[in-house]
Specification:
alpha+beta, five-stranded antiparallel β-sheet, 5 strands
């Protein structure tokens, strides 16, 4: 899920055909959402799937985002697949992260100690058809389309089901 072009970049590419720029942007967004959905569906086929929240302490909030992600990834060493997104709280507008990760074996919660940047929580996804999971996935795909708000980091492994 590489860097996507903004609508402005697409207009510059097609200055004489604004409709084509709009269509290309829409198609790109649809493909992006489809890849997210496909990744999540693949993750849900794994024996164990978990939803993580990573908050940041006051001391850690100003660290570069790459350091946040490095610490988050350190808590997921055995994940078969993961997706991490940054988010901002609706009330506090404070940066935090969410992750959805799948595993072959039950998650070892002692791995959360590697985060060390604030508070963590993990919840197993027991009902893989749950409405709350569907709503999270919808939120995840909606947030990732807001270029100024969220980004997704994902595991590099691929399965036969992914493109």
């Amino acid at each position: 899920m590489g860097k996507r072009k903004s609508i402005e970049q697409r207009f510059k590419e097609n200055p004489n055909n604004i409709q084509k720029a709009i269509d290309n942007s829409r198609k790109s967004e649809e493909r992006y959402r489809s890849r997210i959905k496909q990744r999540v569906e693949t993750m849900l086929t794994q024996p164990y799937c978990y939803f993580f929240t990573y908050t940041l302490s006051n001391e850690s909030i100003e660290l570069p985002q790459e350091q946040h992600i490095k610490k988050i990834k350190a808590t997921l060493p055995q994940a078969t697949f993961y997706m991490i997104n940054n988010d901002y709280g609706t009330q506090t507008e404070r940066l935090h992260y969410h992750a959805l990760a799948s595993f072959i074996h039950e998650y070892d919660t002692t791995k959360l100690d590697k985060y060390q940047l604030g508070y963590t929580s993990v919840k197993p996804i027991k009902d893989k058809n749950a409405k709350s999971l569907y709503e999270y996935i919808l939120k995840l795909s909606n947030h990732t389309t807001k270029r100024s708000v969220a980004k997704i980091w994902r595991s590099k492994k691929k399965s036969n089901k992914e493109g």
